[in-house]
């Protein structure tokens, strides 16, 4: 079942969600969603983002920005430098830092809480979140088959 628009999110620092307890509401701004993220009635859809580990993000980025047709958004997560250009998420860091953030894929969704419920109902587990993050609410989930995915509910950038 899909969560209502403006869905609840776990606040940073609260107890982990197991999908069976109601999350506390969070004031996460929701605007227009990025291209590729859709809403279709009661169906939650996702779009995959290619995760590309690079040795030198500054040298690699011009190609990915040209392929995406738009400039990248740069940000950091722990010891990892990241740049998001269209369907590409570039990651640069030491091997041990990259190992901590390695995922099968990043999935963009219009409703991260609904995805949480789908993963749990299918026998998966939530490893992190959903929590507010720089690009929008996010969570890390291990599917029942063992694959680990990052889910992001993008927010519009002004």
Please give a structural write-up.
The chain is of the alpha+beta class and 158 residues long. It is built from three helices and ten strands. It has one domain: Roll (2,3-Dihydroxybiphenyl 1,2-Dioxygenase, domain 1), CATH 3.10.180.10. The longest helix has 12 residues. The two termini are 31 Å apart.
Task: Briefly say what this structure is.
The chain is α+β, with helices and mostly antiparallel strands. It has three helices and ten strands, in the order βββαβββαβαβββ. It has an eight-stranded mixed beta sheet.
Draw up the topology in text.
Layout: E1 39-40, E2 43-44, E3 46-53, H1 57-68, E4 73-77, E5 80-85, E6 88-92, H2 95-101, E7 105-109, H3 112-121, E8 125-131, E9 138-142, E10 148-152
Parallel strand pairs: 3-6, 7-10
Antiparallel strand pairs: 1-2, 3-7, 4-5, 5-6, 8-9, 9-10
């Amino acid at each position: 079942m899909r969560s209502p628009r403006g869905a609840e999110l776990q606040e940073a620092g609260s107890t982990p969600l197991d999908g069976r307890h109601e999350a506390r509401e969070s004031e996460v701004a929701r605007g227009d969603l990025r291209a590729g993220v859709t809403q279709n009635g009661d169906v939650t859809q996702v779009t995959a983002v290619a995760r590309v580990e690079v040795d030198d993000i500054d040298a690699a980025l011009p190609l990915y920005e040209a392929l995406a047709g738009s400039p990248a958004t740069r940000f950091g997560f722990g010891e990892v430098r990241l740049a998001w250009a269209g369907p590409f998420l570039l990651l640069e860091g030491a091997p041990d830092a990259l190992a901590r953030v390695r995922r099968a894929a990043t999935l963009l969704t219009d409703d991260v809480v609904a995805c949480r419920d789908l993963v749990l109902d299918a026998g998966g587990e939530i490893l992190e979140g959903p929590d507010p993050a720089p690009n929008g609410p996010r969570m890390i989930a291990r599917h029942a088959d063992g694959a680990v995915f990052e889910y992001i509910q993008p927010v519009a950038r002004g």
